[in-house]
Design brief:
With about 350 residues, the chain is an alpha/beta fold. It has helices spanning about 10-20, 25-35, 50-60, 120-125, 130-145, 170-175, 200-210, 220-230, 235-245, 270-280, 305-315, 335-344, and strands at about 1-5, 60, 65-70, 80-85, 90-95, 100-105, 110, 125-130, 155-160, 190-195, 210-215, 255-260, 285-290, 320-325. The strands form three sheets. A ten-stranded mixed β-sheet has the order 3-4-5-6-9-10-11-12-13-14, with helices on one face. A two-stranded parallel sheet has the order 1-2. A two-stranded antiparallel sheet has the order 7-8.
Length: about 350
């Protein structure tokens, strides 16, 4: 049975008009029930006649991810472990900002990239998530915020489990669905896709202005990237940066470069100077992230002094660099930790 959340607007229109024989205006009604009114069954769709609701229920379903676990940190970070219809587990995190929440979304079950510092990478790749499974995370988190009278959800980062650009077809579908004024109504400016960097797919996102992008770089040289991100490093780091120099970026916006600091591995002054040289001429900002130690990983967190010294070198060379504050450490908010615990 088809999950209506997996359908784009045009696919929903085709399903309702061609398969169900309904007039086109029904598309807007059903679309709003799905994405604005949190409908989880057809009985609540009161502007549809009962025989029509029964007909829809016989042909389709509205399937949200099942909330397996919710953990709330002292700082307000909220982590969800979701179970998919086939039993697969994924994670999503709500991150409190000044007046809103941002949500970190998963795009795959597991991940094929095998980055050596990532719990999800240890799990390996199981499968891609559908549009309904990706945006179902948004629906479930938004309902949680409403039920608990918390700040609204206003922005999304595709930075959870999986490499978004390796689920490109469904990612594009999601990014096209998000801005719908009669749906979730989240602008491309408030959607950020985090990726290790696949130029062909990035080019389409940039040309169509589907989302902002963040590049998970984490090393200033090809050699070091090969050590800690062997599969990502198949795209040479210099070729990646050369591509990004021509990436279309609107005025007053910058590319985001993410750099995870691993104690004694990539956090030394020489690495900061190498990073400055690598990113020279690129209109970007650097987000520095202190590693959050996890079980079964061979890395430690750098000291606060080391992180600040790294940042100072970047600033002194004219580069914009921010230190992302660590959040949710008391609930194991790093990607993959909650699922790993559940599987144990």
């Amino acid at each position: 049975m088809i999950n209506l959340l997996d359908l784009s607007y045009s696919e929903l229109e085709a399903f309702l008009t061609e398969r169900m024989g309904l007039p086109r205006f029904r598309t807007d009604q059903v679309w709003q029930w799905l994405w604005q009114k949190d409908a989880r069954d057809f009985e609540v769709m009161t502007n549809l006649a009962k025989p029509l609701r029964e007909k829809l229920a016989a042909e389709a379903a509205i399937v949200w991810p099942e909330t397996e676990t919710v953990q709330v940190s002292r700082d307000g970070t909220t982590k969800f472990l979701f179970r998919m219809a086939d039993g697969k587990l994924i994670e999503s995190v709500l991150i409190p900002m000044q007046d809103r929440y941002s949500q970190c979304l998963s795009t795959q079950v597991g991940c094929a990239m095998g980055c050596t510092f990532c719990n999800t990478g240890l799990m390996g790749f199981e499968r891609n998530l559908t549009q309904g499974e990706i945006l179902g995370q948004v629906l479930a988190a938004r309902k949680y915020l409403e039920d608990n009278e918390l700040m609204p959800l206003k922005s999304l980062v595709f930075m959870g489990m999986g490499e978004p650009l390796l689920n490109f077809k469904n990612l594009v579908k999601v990014l096209e669905t998000l801005p719908s004024a009669k749906g979730l109504n989240i602008s491309w400016r408030r959607s950020m896709v985090s990726t290790v960097g696949f130029p062909e797919q990035l080019a389409e996102i940039g040309e169509r202005e589907l989302a902002q992008i963040a590049i998970s770089l984490h090393a200033p040289t090809q050699e070091l990237r090969e050590q800690i991100m062997p599969k990502a490093a198949r795209t040479d780091i210099k070729d990646l940066i050369a591509f990004l120099r021509d990436y279309p970026v609107r005025n007053r916006l910058r590319l985001t470069i993410e750099y995870l600091l691993l104690k004694g591995v990539n956090d030394q002054p020489e690495h900061a100077r190498q990073l400055v040289k690598l990113l020279s001429g690129l209109r970007c900002k650097v987000n520095l992230i202190a590693y959050n130690p996890t079980e079964d990983m061979p890395y430690d967190a750098p000291s606060t002094e080391t992180v600040e010294a790294f940042q100072k070198i970047l600033w002194d060379k004219g580069m914009t660099a921010f230190i992302r504050r660590s959040m949710g450490a008391d609930i194991k908010a790093a990607c993959g930790q909650l699922k790993a615990d559940a599987q144990k």
